[in-house]
Amino acid sequence: MGCAGSHDKADETAKKIRKPMPWKHSEPITRIELIRMRDEFWDTAPHYGGRKEIWDALRAAAEADITLAQAIVESAGVIVQNPDLTVCYDERGAKYELPKYVLSEPANLIRDS
Predict the structure, then answer these.
(1) Domain-located, residue 16
(2) Within-domain flag for 9
(3) What is the pLDDT of residues 33-59, one digit of tens each?
(4) Which tens digits make up the pLDDT trace of 18-32?
(5) DSSP string covering 61-90, please?
């Protein structure tokens, strides 16, 4: 039996994730521009700190459907602070912040003709 204020660490990592809320880029962008932004973020993400294997797991989760993303973050030991994966931590306490553009498409995405 624990204190009323205590909680199991597994509860934090098991937080259910969801898609980010709808968002808009500052100006309409094409899918190619969005992909370029995403690639640039993922190429530079490990330089923000944290462990490369956690960044890799977060990228895999960001690119997967919700069910698979949930399994990826749980198996990597990622502690999800925001259910949309915009703020996460690893088991050592390193913070990982993901911009919404790597997690979903903007409402003002220019569709290919």
Answers:
(1) no
(2) no
(3) 999 999 999 999 999 899 999 999 999
(4) 988 889 999 999 999
(5) HHTS-HHHHHHHHHHHT-EESSTTSSEEE-
